[in-house]
Amino acid sequence: MSKKFWETLPQGSVVLEAGSSAKFKTGGWRSMKPKWIEENCIQCLFCWMYCPDMSVKVTAEGKRAEFNYDYCKGCGICALECPGKKGNKAIVMEEEGK
Amino acid sequence: MGKIVAVTGNEACAQALKQINPDVCAAYPITPATDLMQRFSSYVNNGQVDTELVLVESEHSAMSACIGAAAAGGRVATATSSQGLALMWEMLYIAAGTRLPIIMPLVNRALSAPLNIHGDHSDGMGARDTGWIQLYSENAQEAYDNTIQAFKIAEHMDIRLPAMVCMDGFIVSHSIERVEYIDDADVKNFVGKFQAVNPLLDLDKPKSYGPLILTDLYHEYKRAQHEVMTKVPKVVLEVAAEFEKMTGRKYSLFETYRLEDAEIAIVVMSSAAGTTKDIIDQYRDKGVKIGLLKPRMFRPFPYLEIADALKHLKAIAVLDRADSFGGYGPLFMEIASAVTSMDTKPAMINKIFGLGGRDYLPEQGEHVIDELINVAKTGKVQTVKEYIGVRE
Ligand code: SF4
Ligand code: SF4
Fold first, then answer.
1. CB of B198 less than 8 A from some CB of A
2. Hey, is the C-beta of A24 within 8 angstroms of any chain B C-beta?
């Protein structure tokens, strides 16, 4: 007899696949979107350090790269922490869809 | 051959834990369970067990630490009572839903308010729906035997659920009784080596515990959890049969006493069942056909098996050592549910007794039986639920 769907679920809802949260794109939760202004960026990588969701990409050379909008929830922490250059922020928050 | 000793219920349970030697125990003291874990902590201190004893700052933390240790892949135990169990409430569901076979002696005690440290079943009944297996014990011997069997039941590969072993606070936990201990080697051999399922510490196979499961799958996980509970009775009986082979002591889902030819019966759990058996003997001597049924496994509740054992009766009195305010006593509700499957239903009455450790005296049982004889004769019930042993 073939198993019913609920009988095939892993016992105790344990997730047995490592890194499977990458499949769950949380970017759709975002109402505010961070925008990177490269000319104001001093490459301090505060944004990368503070982002709770690994949504700030870094190149193989260790340089600040674009946001990963598949997962960025728009919390604004990166924009708050960004020192920018001479008082000009390198990250600003914009309303999503504008 | 084991050893015959004179010990309290707490001492007997601590001995069972010592013989099993769990990997991790996380505990917080609470009367009347304090003495159990205090004894166990001296075994840890004396090097008689190599358990990692985690002394935490609350029962919520105790159960949390147990959950973590069980998910890591260890054999885990703790013990508590009353408010301690109440504080664990959130974590109890997580232990069961995550399918972690944690073992917990629950020394039954009343819940506040008013504050009371003595025995009743309010705590255990409050945890009825948490998904834990519950075994209730009449005396120290049963508490000891049930603790050992609980490990084998909970850790069975078809089950993997947490289990509580209940005994009456003070009445059993602090009274010295004759208990037969099983040899250390036999206990070890009986429970076997612990086998972890999906241990977090198996670092080559990374995994996550406790994910968010919403409307797409939650319902299915609960369906699966219900299914596991339906498999418990078979395992409880298998483990009991194996236990009987080792010790000669017989266990089942419930115990019956002079019930086969009875016309009326009392259903009661734990220590009060012992007193009730004596009263039943007196009435039997007078020619009254009365018997007793004492549930041992309260969760899952063996509705059909109990219905089969009660189906020939004219009247039943269910004695509850806990109340569901605004409802009938919790044991009565289960027996009433069991009765729905019968063709001819016996008349039923519910008595609430012994709350906050109030003594259950023989004359209380006698009054219940006298009323029950009348109910059986007339088929009429005056009041379904009533408190007995109340000062008026
Ligand atoms: S808005 Fe929040 S989630 Fe998005 S990149 Fe900045 S810190 Fe990360
Ligand atoms: S925090 Fe601002 S300045 Fe620093 S790397 Fe990020 S964007 Fe550039």
1. yes
2. no
